[in-house]
């Protein structure tokens, strides 16, 4: 149970977080760096209450229109709405006005359930987008609620270093609540969130943290040993490492990105994973002359495009307040340009995989349709056919579309195209 000092500090952190000028985790890390004396338990209470506030912000905002100006009230509301505390339990932390305000907040329960934005805990710009792409209210509410749950910890077994069944047995024998992921053949789901970065299986490169959905995207590339592959937007290499393992360390895998810092994070991970065939390369942009030598050479190119990230709201609930329709339009232009440039690297008969961690058609199907309208000589490979030998969620259409409410992964989209000339 949170104490008075922790509540005051939560309010101080919320005054910054709720402006949404920066990612919540960045603001919170900087806040904790300034509060050196705080213990682990203090940090946990503050962080949990900050994230509960963001997760329940639609309801809180209904009663408190500018919550960053009244962050103590926002935090108290989060304790009651998000952290399951009764008003009685928090009454020693409140003055009389605050207590009365909490009572009124609770009285609005049925209003909250009757309005789409508060029932789904999604801002109106996003519920509008989802409705425009044909989602009905029940789907939107189911999605919104599914992303209010914290994500479990999914890890991928590096097939160069271990077999999933054996590793799963080791983790279970250590008393961890662990089970095989339902769809990815390499995945293990952990429910207790152990500090994995000190675990010998992590330090030895047997395990990597990776959401099951992200594992499935790598699986979909179908990349094989000895091939030439490109991960065009590799970031810190989540999918690069999985592709490297699929290639059994043979062939060449280029990990490209514009962000030096992210690629730098890939390097120790490659070493841990025992992969020597990955070539990280920073590029200035998608037209960088340094990649011209790969034109028409790659067997497989993955474009895990920069996107709104709206499929990852379980981990980054503040994104729904930091994104907007205008932002999505700017991202669409970037995605179009990257996909176009990356496609030129694919050899005849090779594969191009376009993926995002977004649930918006504007970033997904629409990009694919635009690409196919502007480019001839490409064929869509239905995802169900590609992955028929693997367990895969039932899915309509040719694309992989993962949604937290149905598949318990982050939301992902992926399409596979083959170059036919
Ligand atoms: C969705 S993230 C990739 C995540 C990564 N694939 C993983 O699995 O961890 C998108 C990445 O695209 C990179 N990016 C943005 N613009 C780019 C460009 N023009 N060319 C290549 N990469 C770009 C960003 O720096 C970011 O790392």
Automatic annotation (TrEMBL):
This is SUN protein. Residues 143-420 form the SAM-dependent MTase RsmB/NOP-type domain. Belongs to the class I-like SAM-binding methyltransferase superfamily. RsmB/NOP family. InterPro entries: MeTrfase_RsmB-F_NOP2_cat, MeTrfase_RsmB-F_NOP2_dom, RCMT, RsmB-like_ferredoxin, SAM-dependent_MTases_sf. Keywords: Methyltransferase, RNA-binding, S-adenosyl-L-methionine, Transferase. GO terms for molecular function: RNA binding; RNA methyltransferase activity. It comes from the Bacteria. One of its GO terms (biological process) is RNA methylation. It comes from Snodgrassella communis. The active site is at residue 357. S-adenosyl-L-methionine binds at residues 257, 284, 304. Pfam families: Methyltr_RsmB-F, RsmF-B_ferredox.
